[in-house]
Amino acid sequence: MKKQILIVDDEPDLCEILRFNLEAAGFGTIVAHSAESALNELSACQPDVLLLDVMMPGLSGFDLARRVKNDPTTAHLPIIFLTARDAETDKLEGFDIGADDYIAKPFSIREVVARVKAVLNRTGQPAVQELSYRGLRLFIDRKQVTIDGEEVSLTKTEYELLHLLLAHQGHVFSRQELLELAWPSDVIVTGRTVDVNITRLRKKLGAYAASIVTRLGYGYYFENKGE
Questions:
Q1: What is the reported pTM?
Q2: In angstroms, rounded to a whole number, what is the distance separating the alpha carbons of residues 196 and 163?
């Protein structure tokens, strides 16, 4: 199966050149002209590498990369920045976020293809496909949750909330963080919406409802109560 490369850049001509050459090198490609469009693509597919511009209207490449690395479903995704911002501080920021490579514009297309291959060779780690806590299991590949083998019917938002909390047990997420990570970027909701969805999620988790803990004044976290 071809490795899929998600190209994110607001310059259509550059995207087309990258697409042509990457496909000629045997890769599949997906193109997004904004970080917001890239988020939609990431929710629908699982690319193998993210080629990411930094300076784009709206959400910047750095902001998108932070979201990718903070989301357990995409945290493993290798990121290569392609950008005109070549100052040392910019490169350090990119690597601090978790970038696997940083290529300054203008660049050689052959160099980009070579670096994509090198990153893929270094990062062949399989993605985590299941999260669990006692009898509670969350299957990432098929977006399914079961309790003691019985499927639990969750909405997309409830699933995303449980996924975040279960993947980062003990970490307190603020309402704002949950809004940014579990809701689409083009949907306007309030912190109260988070509370309502957490309440609904708890009702569906039965004996595991108490594992989703409210930290007053801060937010929510998943508590591992031990054996």
A1: 0.56
A2: 17
